[in-house]
Amino acid sequence: MEELEALKQRIKTMMVENLMLQVSAAEIKDDQPLFGPGSLGLDSVDALQLVVALDKNFGLKIPTPAAAKDILHSVNTIVAAVQNLSAAPGAV
To answer: Which domain holds residue 25?
Structure first.
């Protein structure tokens, strides 16, 4: 369970640093939407930067805009995608 919390914290910290957010990692809720109403307020440029950062930091490739919409919904959905990548056969 500690690993999960550490991964969430790492992703939040990466988001704050890469997207130059005006909030701290601690202020980002795990299930808070990243885009749209009631969200963290990210835009399409942030989405692109997030995709690049996830690839660079975790080796997570997001192949299509539809996949990006699902994966980049919240910290929890990003964590699930990173965990699925780690559990995949042949994962490093």
So the answer is: 2-87
